[in-house]
Amino acid sequence: MLKGKKVGFIGGGKMGSVLAGGIVSHQLVPASHVIVADVVQERLDELAQAYGIAGTKDIKRVAREAGILILAVKPQNMGEVLAELAPVVGKSHLVVSIAAGIPIKFIEERLKKGVRVIRVMPNTPALIGEGMAALAKSATATETDLAQARQIFDAVGLTVVVKEDLMNAVTGLSGSGPAYGFIIIEALSDAGVHMGLNRDIALKLAAQTLLGAAKLCLKGDKHPGELKDMVTSPAGTTIAGIKALEEGKIRATLMAAVEAATLRAKELGGN
Q: What domains does the chain contain, in order, with CATH numbers?
């Protein structure tokens, strides 16, 4: 899908660097077809050394050279970046934004009419190639545009396609979700220590157990409830633990966390 395309990144921070490296590492395009703009020279030097990717501090140069532009800048800087890009970005460009809370309409209103836009909500596990990203396309973007964007994010994890009005829910679930997972892992580790395990062993047991459970959900064909039942024998240890979790309202608490994060994302995005 990306053969012959040039991909430009506006922003070479953690997520921008991971995506640029993922594209090259998975040979979606050669390093010579990737260019990154960032104000921090050290980031550009690191990308050049690690992947052979060209760097610049001139974002207009990136737009002139690349047909696919990935906006990997902070939401509060998006207006300023779009104002600078507006004279050189048009219908020939596919603009992919990973700025949390920035709607497609915000980008369309600041660039030339007809620009094709894909909005993406990735998450931090992309840093180790285990990310989860949801994509929504503008009315002007084509299915080919969407497929090209998915290929980029598939290089660092998994992707799904949603309608844009569900992006806040995505933010509340998978965008904020790693933090919920870290809290659960930390709590399980604390419990292991409380029961006599040393910290290193308890942490490894907790993290790998959740990793394995997640992989069973993704790679198997069974519902999570069915997988839970496979572990739960009559009057056994697991059902005793599940009873304690239910008494602590774990399901309601996690659902409330996703709801609260979704509503906050809606507030921050002004929609």
A: 7-169 (3.40.50.720), 175-269 (1.10.3730.10)
Interval 229-252: pLDDT, tens: 999 999 999 999 999 999 999 999
Mean of pLDDT over the chain: 95
Longest dimension (CA), the chain: 69
Residues in contact with 260: Cβ distance below 8 Å, sequence separation at least 6, in sequence order: 172
DSSP code per residue over 27-86: TSS-GGGEEEE-S-HHHHHHHHHHH--EEES-HHHHHHH-SEEEE-S-GGGHHHHHHHHT
Query: Is the separation of the CB atoms in 62 and 69 below 8 Å?
Result: yes
**pLDDT reading at 271 higher than 70:** no
Structure tokens that stand for 87 in this block: 């004279």
Q: Residue 136: what are its φ and ψ, rounded to 5°?
A: -135, 140
Print the SS3 string covering 95-108.
EEECCCCCCHHHHH
- Nearest one of 170, 134, 173, 126 to 15, comparing CA atoms: 126
